[in-house]
Every structure is written in structure tokens, then in C-alpha cells.
Amino acid sequence: MSYTKRVLIAEDSSVIQNLARKILEFQNYEITAVKNGEQVLQLLEKEKFDIILLDINMPIMDGMECARSIRSLKDAEKAKTPIVAITGNAKNYTDEDFKEAGFNDALMKPLNFDRLVEVVANLTD
């Protein structure tokens, strides 16, 4: 029996958070959602996820800072968790910026939900 893949979504927009949750739950992913990067790091102290979706612009700790913090975690397994950027202002960052921060991929807003499912599936195989 295969276990359900766990997805952590960090997104301060309730609308995007809820849409992504519904789409991914429909694909049988288990979803945990938070509003900022600091909450991501607090959760990672206690739990393990198969993939993390990070909004770039969040209060308290943004996605870029959060991704760098995840990559420098002492727990090597958690530090390697796939991370996907979600951004509405891609012009502010290059693919190189995302790679440098530790992201595996980036999704642009408005979210293409087929692409969301495809990226999550590919990175959690």
C-alpha cells in the first residue's frame, strides 16, 4: 500500500491556498497550509513533507529566505525536500535567483492548476 504524499503550502492568499488545496486533495495529496515562511520552519521541526510550495511574497518571512533556511537545515533529509516557488512577480527574479535560493521549480500566478499537479507529481515520485 502506498502512502499519501504530504504537501506543505505556504501562501498568504487564502484564495490561492484554498484552490491549491482542493486541486491537490482531489489528486489524493495530504495538504497542510500555513501563511508564512516562519510557520514552515516551525512545522519542519516536527514533521516531514514530500514537497513544499512557497509563495515568494509573504509576511514575516518570504519564500526566498524560507527556501534558503530549509536548504540549511541540520536534518539532511528535510533539507533536500523539493521546494516549488509560487510567484506573481516573476519579473523581479530570474530562474537563476530561484535556483540559487534552493528552489526545484517555479510556478507563476495566476496558477495553472494542470501545471501545479504535474510539478508536484514529478517532484514527489
From TrEMBL:
Please give the Pfam families that the UniProt record associates with this protein.
Answer: Response_reg (PF00072)
**What's in the keyword line of the UniProt record?**
Phosphoprotein, Two-component regulatory system
Example GO biological process term? phosphorelay signal transduction system
Sections of the chain in a coiled coil: none
UniProt key word Phosphoprotein: yes
Post-translational modification 4-aspartylphosphate, affected residues = 55
Which residues does the UniProt record annotate as the domain Response regulatory?
A: 6-124
Keyword Phosphoprotein carried by entry = yes
Q: Which parts of the chain span the membrane according to its record?
A: none
SMART domains registered for this protein in UniProt: REC (SM00448)
Identify this protein by name: Response regulatory domain-containing protein
Organism equals Persicitalea jodogahamensis
Q: Which taxonomic lineage is given here?
A: Bacteria, Pseudomonadati, Bacteroidota, Cytophagia, Cytophagales
